[in-house]
Structures are given as C-alpha cells and as structure tokens.
Amino acid sequence: MPHFVIDCSENVIRLKSADDIMQEVYHTALATNLFIPTDIKVRINPFTYYNNGNSSDDFIHVFGYILEGRNTDQKAALSKAIVTKLNEILPEVPIISINIMDFEKASYVNKAMV
C-alpha cells in the first residue's frame, strides 16, 4: 500500500517509456513522506481504444488507492505533486488527472495477513 494505477492513451508510452512514467510517480509519492518506500506500488495500463468526450486526445489518469489515515490536505498535496510531475515530464499530454481513494483498514486483507 499505496497502489497507483496509471491509465493512459497508448501514445503516452511512445512519448516517454512506461518505466520512466512509473518511476516518476513512485519517486513523487515517496517524496511526500506519506509512505514507506517498499510499500509503494505503481502499475500502468495503456489504452489503444478510448473516447475522451468524443475526442482522441492523449490522457493520463492516476487512480491512487491508499490506506485510510491521511487527512484531506495530505491527499490534496499528493494529488497536486503527482499531476505537477506528470505535466513536467509530459507537457504535450492535454489531459492529466488523479483521484485518491482510501482503503478501509477494517476490510483490507492481503496474503500475508491470512
């Protein structure tokens, strides 16, 4: 925990490698000091087929899933930091966004907990 799942148009990974994009998200999340380095997971899903409001503009959207306990200001700062970094490395991408969702501690289970 946390998990950052990056959805993007396939062209985005032609502009910058998937590994580079994931590393930038990883390092930006780490720099917030909200997470332990070994807990941060990042994945990327490039899409060939999509419709953005009836356009084919390139896009990046990050779904951030974090364990509950961070306040709204911390989550907002995390969101802003990631979008700012992605905009710095991919300024030609017109749509860059993120949302942060909390995992509930009471209902979260992973293999090590069973």
From TrEMBL:
Q: Where are the transmembrane segments?
A: none
So which domain of life are we looking at?
Bacteria
Q: Which organism is it from?
A: Flavobacterium collinsii
> Do you know which InterPro entries this protein is assigned to?
5-COMe_2-OHmuconate_Isoase (IPR004220), Tautomerase/MIF_sf (IPR014347)
Q: What is this protein called?
A: 5-carboxymethyl-2-hydroxymuconate Delta-isomerase
User: What are the coiled-coil residue ranges?
Assistant: none
Biological classification of the source = Bacteria, Pseudomonadati, Bacteroidota, Flavobacteriia, Flavobacteriales
